[in-house]
Amino acid sequence: MAELDTSGGGGKKGGKVRSKKQSTRVDLTAMVDLAFLLITFFIMTTTLSKPKAMDVAMPDKDEKQDNQLDVAASRTMTLLLGKDNKLMWYIGEPGKTAPEVEGYGKKGLRQTLLDKSKEVQEKTGKFMFVIIKPSNKSVYKNMVDALDEIAITNIQSYGFAEILPVETKLLQEQGLY
Amino acid sequence: MPKVKVARKSTSIDMTAMCDVAFLLLTFFILTAKPRIEDPVPVDVPGSVKDIKLPEENIAVITVGEKKAFFSVEGNDVRKAVLEQMGGLYNIQFTPQEMNKFAALPVFGVPIQSLKQFLALDVEQRQRYPQPGIPRDSVSDELFNWIRESRKAVKALHNQEMRVSIKGDSKEEYPTIKDVIAILQRQKVNKFSLITSLRGASKD
Q: Which portions of this protein are annotated as coiled-coil regions (chain B) (predicted)?
């Protein structure tokens, strides 16, 4: 198949008819092809399908109230995760500042987080603290997305908290609950 | 002047060595490959930019999908010990055969009362068996106990802390996840991992 006949063509005229010696070499090209194909397949399926993990630390539930770190409301940003992949955010205390509705992703949450953390940094000289409050209507993906954006924007301090009835109401007003 | 004839060289290359290498690598990859665990419910893992690899040992995975929770823990020895402890806790005697079957079971989601019946099925029947998920209510507290007993077993057998990770479906509603997290927090597991798939940071 892949071998060229290099014997030089026609034999001598006359003489004894000799049986041609058969080559013992087997063409391995196809076998090598197959082997590499399988190798590629196994490399792809083993290393690429390895699940990745995202570490989450939750606040200790039994912690005493006086042990808790107080963070000034002015540098606390709260994210309320609502339905339909939408979220709401406000800075400060609930009800005092008007919340804004936003989507996840590059243009939405990421930009807001970047802008606001810069703003807070300039105003107070301290880092911004983000609290994520998933509502019962949000899905698991929203929670992961929110965490992800926080990781991308390099925000060091964040936490999870239970959503308050006041905040659920805010979500309801915007049709996100 | 006579023409100088250039001897024609054969164009075939000796493939033997290449073939050897290829098959050596192939064998290596086949032996190291772990069979993918079939999820009992369709789970579409959300993407994230975090690329911390999940450890292979001393880890338990709680799969959450369709409002049901499934449990799996790595290691055959751990699984055996866990089943024994759980049997003791719920007064169910498991035979050595059932223990072995359980040790080979990658993931399951049945209440402990019907576990015996579930183990008696063969692999194909098990796939078709409608697994109701592990009960999460506080009366039987099964998921709580599965996690706690696994942590005990890992500590006893490998002398290491067990990591807990949650593998949730993207579309799973938050209350189910909240339930599972609350169960973890009740036994002071405040640090755990969420299993995600890798995605580029530039995508939105």
A: none
